[in-house]
Amino acid sequence: LSREAAEGHKAAGDRKMMISARIRIGQAACELGNAELGIRVLRESLALAESDHDLFYRRQVMLHLSAALAALPDAAAWEQAEAYARDVLEIPNTSTGYKGWAHGILAQCCLQRHQASQAEVEANLALPQCQNFPLRRLWVKTLLASCKIIQGRATIEAAQELIAELDDLKCAGYVEVAARLAAAEQFAAAGQSGRAHRELRATLEQIALRADLIPEPEWRERYLNQVGENLRARQLAEKWLATDPWKSDPAPLSGSALGASQ
Predict the structure, then answer these.
(1) How many CA atoms lie within 13 A of 80 on its CB side?
(2) CB atoms < 10 A from the CB of 152, how many?
(3) In CA terms, which of 74, 85, 96, 223 is 20 to 30 Å from 256?
């Protein structure tokens, strides 16, 4: 739909809405596991915004591009992500929400390098700026939880806080899988292996539910195997549960199996 919208806006000569639609295309491609395509579309969108001297969309594209780059397992990409995030922070009149997102991206890049102390500083700057954005606030809390694990300060309370916030939200959209996985890892690091396994199963169930909604086999395969948190969940399932969730019978991920395992 976003692709059709982009073509329609292009035909109508509405460059602003065309850029907006292309941002959604780039974001969706990254979330579905095709980071190469998503980043290329976002870079093209940034070039369009810059050629139009459109500060609003330039700032928006930079944040999406920065987030996409920060998620890659590539040190050069993290440097680019940080540069874009810092550019956003320096733009006059940047909203509080965007500032929070930028600081969160900086925290994520630090975590990629296992620089937990600096990541914690950035995440704590992001948290109050994300208070009015529940999903982004939860995302920042997952970053703080990861800081605790790296620093050997994991607590049951931190994991419970993530689960409580997930329960309050009912549906945590794009951050649901990352938050549940963070809670599972926090429980494990705090010595609660049984609860960690339970939350990992809940994470796998959320991934499976989302994968089932992807009609194209190629995109479904990408989502399962090339999205960072999904790959991490698979690795933990192999380590903790002695199963490959994408190759085994889907029954272990069903609600009844989850109930039996608890």
Answers:
(1) 17
(2) 8
(3) 223
pTM: 0.89
CA distance linking residue 149 with residue 253, whole number of Å:
26
Cα distance between residue 128 and residue 165, in whole Å: 16
Please, which residues have CB within 8 angstroms of residue 66's CB and are 6 or more apart in sequence?
Answer: 80, 81, 82, 84, 85, 88, 102, 105
In degrees to the nearest 10, what's the CA dihedral of 41, 59, 175, 142?
A: 130
Q: Which is nearest to 72 in space by CA: 100, 102, 33?
A: 33
Retrieve residue 75's tokens: 């040190």
What is the number of residues in the chain? 262
What's residue 14's pLDDT?
54
Q: How far apart are CA 202 and CA 253, in angstroms?
A: 8
Taking the CA of residue 227 as centre, how many other CA atoms within 13 Å lie in the half-sphere pointing to its CB?
23
Per-residue pLDDT band at 18 (split at 50, 70, 90): confident
